[in-house]
Design goal:
This protein is α/β, with parallel strands linked by helices. The protein has six helices and 13 strands.
């Protein structure tokens, strides 16, 4: 192609490219006037082990269901957007056939990015990214958000990029975070936007730097999203502590502290792996 022909082609394409750019800009979601919490279906854990309840010091017959939900959240705040947890199944596990994808014993029905797009967001719209902890069923799509500021306890990050890596995680799914802009959380309560509406609470025990999330919603009221402080609601009602905790004594202390906080604030506790409760919650594209 000679230079003159290239010039004509460029002129012909320019309006189309500009239109696409304008369209992409128009689709960018406007900052909400009040806090919004979007819940995404990031899959289901269906461990086939008949002794699935034993690590939680529960009997299978004590459980309503041994299945666990996998929840991911978008917090849309007037001052910015944050993702909380990234699911179990990365986008790379999906094929272009519309079928669910599996990793270990986790099944997801739709890629996380596609669900995010349904509410008008892309990974580049996210300013902050936080994980409750580093285990494999929470980090599946972490690399999507490597461009955001990562809010993390140093003790968890040290494990994530330690040598050898923890067998409880999938390092390839968060490898890009190594070069992310990172804020180490050094307080028990980290106010993300400075107005008390979104607060990351230190709840160590399940992992060295495990975190839970407080969100103050206008209509729903205050909510605490548990991470893995509890897995099954029966752990809470029957006062059982899993045998697989990093530090069981810390878990007991973190639970006691959070229960006092719930009583003080009147906040609901959302157990992220509670399969039955998850089915009743309003999920994206609603908020």
């Amino acid at each position: 192609m000679n230079r003159r022909m290239l010039w004509f082609v460029t002129l012909a394409l320019a309006p189309s490219l500009l239109a696409q750019a304008r369209l992409a800009q128009e689709k960018k979601p406007a900052a909400p006037t009040s806090l919004r919490l979007y819940l995404f279906d990031c899959g289901t854990l269906d461990n086939p082990d008949p002794k699935v309840a034993e690590p939680y010091q529960l009997k299978k017959e004590e459980l309503v269901t041994p299945k666990m939900s996998v929840e991911c959240f978008l917090i849309a705040h007037p001052k910015g957007n944050m993702i909380w947890d990234a699911g179990a199944v990365p986008e790379s596990a999906f094929k272009n056939d519309g079928k669910p994808a599996m990793v270990r014993y986790a099944t997801a029905r739709k890629p996380f990015r596609a669900q995010l797009a349904e509410v008008g967001y892309t990974p580049t719209d996210i300013q902050y990214f936080a994980l409750s902890h580093f285990h494999w069923d929470h980090v599946g799509n972490a690399n999507l958000f490597a461009g955001a500021t990562w809010l993390v306890q140093k003790s968890d990050r040290d494990v994530m990029f330690g040598d050898p890596p923890s067998p409880r995680t999938e390092p390839q799914n968060f490898s890009a975070l190594k070069n992310s802009k990172t804020t180490y959380i050094t307080t028990n309560d980290y106010d993300v936007f400075g107005d008390g509406a979104v607060v990351i609470k230190a709840t160590p025990g399940h992992s060295p730097g495990h975190q839970s999330l407080f969100v103050k919603l206008a209509k729903t009221g205050p909510v605490v999203i548990s991470g893995d402080l509890y897995h099954y609601p029966e752990e809470r009602s029957l006062n059982r502590v899993p045998t697989t905790e990093f530090n069981p004594q810390q878990t007991v202390a973190s639970r006691a502290s959070l229960e006092a906080f719930l009583k003080k604030t009147g906040a609901q506790l959302w157990i992220q792996h509670d399969y039955t409760a998850d089915a009743k919650r309003k999920s994206a594209p609603s908020f």
